[in-house]
Amino acid sequence: MIAFEQVAYSYGGTATLSDVTVQIASGSFHFLTGPSGSGKSTFLKLCYADLVPSLGRVSVFDQDTHALIRDDLPQMRRRIGVVHQECQFIEHLSVIDNVILPLTVAGRAALPKDVTDLLNWVGLSSVVGMTPAALSGGERQRVALARAVITSPEIILADEPTGNVDWEMSLRLLTLLVELNKMGKTIVVATHDLNLIRTVKAQVAARVLRIKDGRVLLAGADL
Amino acid sequence: MKQRSTLPPTEELKTKSLRIVPPSGLGVWLTGLTAAAMSFLAVFAMALALTAGLVAQNWSSELQGRATIRILPSNENSAQQLDMLLQILAQTPGILKAQPLDSATQTALLAPWLGDDIPFDALPLPQLLDVTYAGERYDFEGLRLRLAAELPDAIIDDHMQFRGPILAAAQQLRWLGYGALGLILSVTAMMVVLAANAALAANGTVIKVLQLVGATDRYIVRAFVRRFALRAFLGACFGCLCAVLALHYMPKVAENSGFLRAFGFVQGQWIWPVALPFFVAGIAYIATRWAGYRKLKELI
Prior knowledge:
The structure holds two protein chains of two kinds.
Chain A: E1 2-11, E2 14-24, E3 29-33, H1 40-47, E4 55-60, E5 63-64, H2 72-77, E6 80-83, H3 95-99, H4 101-105, H5 112-121, H6 137-149, E7 155-159, H7 167-182, E8 186-190, H8 194-201, E9 206-212, E10 215-218
Parallel strand pairs in A: 3-8, 3-9, 6-7, 7-8
Antiparallel strand pairs in A: 1-2, 1-4, 4-5, 9-10
Chain B: H1 10-15, H2 26-63, E1 66-71, H3 78-91, E2 95-100, H4 103-114, E3 127-133, H5 140-150, E4 154-157, H6 160-202, H7 204-212, H8 217-248, H9 258-262, H10 271-299
Antiparallel strand pairs in B: 1-3, 1-4, 2-3
């Protein structure tokens, strides 16, 4: 589903990733770990073509992201849900409008029952009329997750989704991602929280990719 | 920060998508203000151009097809000269009418220049004839030469010496108006481009979020275009309304001045100030669309 072939990426001459070859199979659950600045976000951005590799090839849905024409990018991104640590929203829109945004831009109608079910699932049914600025960090993360999954994408990429929330909320968010994985979604979660990875690995057969010195390695049995 | 316990109906969920561009912001506000100010000026430039054209046309049509012949006072028998002149004119193709002015009419023409207390009867005044001709069959030069040969005291004037410079000035004024209008609309387009660029830059997060959730460039640009075209349209409507009111209430200090009295719009010309807001909205549409696609290409 996602394939990196000898991928390198550098910011202004400094190599962030080099010679990365990884296959992420459909329906799998992957953690991506490594210290801050190691290239986890870069890896995820390469996955949804927000960046294109300096060298090598990234394929998503069997399409080379570098070869995608501009009009094809949105189509590809509609099949991928992304959750960021910063949870970027359109701040003047309400929570509900932000959640249904992927449907809106795709020209699809949002069925109220489906939206209600989704918001109940993430525990946000009481805040639909609020603006994102009025939400707590955990609520914002759950709104971002609801937005990421509303179109039922095949891949969900989460970049430090638990970075701004407490342990209890972190577990709750990860549990939601595990549930999505059990529905057949491909999940990639970037996090530096090893305790969280160990806890979640008890619930799901997850592989852990570790980024070290710009290379992506499969983590050992300690994780 | 209202809370809702239930979700809005589907239709409402769909229509809210139109507000993805923040409803306020310097760029949008600036566009409305620019459109209002420029439309106000554009209406005046338009009025200037149309009025100048109308005045030139009126002056031209008033003098077109008419000439004046004057028989200078001399020792010759003036009645004989007049008869001879009328015969010549009768033989000239294209002359429709030749009407000698009586002394009362001639006196009335001179009074504004010389005053009422001048003994006009004692003055050696020329005899004037008002000649009406059909333009296409009339040979001015041929008649002038014949008069010079057969009746040297008769001098013909087709008013071109007077009419030509005035018509040229009116035409220049008309083109000046159109030029000003073109400049105003160009500046409007430039201001909208600047405002749209500022708005696109200020809404970088909105654009990033939209791209993240799979919005096409077309969708993003359309959202901005819609907002800017609407603001430009409303601003232009306000500007046009103010300009039309200003024209209506313009002091009528020059009732006797043909130009100022006619300044404004007549009959079918009102379509132009009415159409201007749509035109300005069209300019805003094109300018924002261009700026939007350009900006999006810069972002990725």
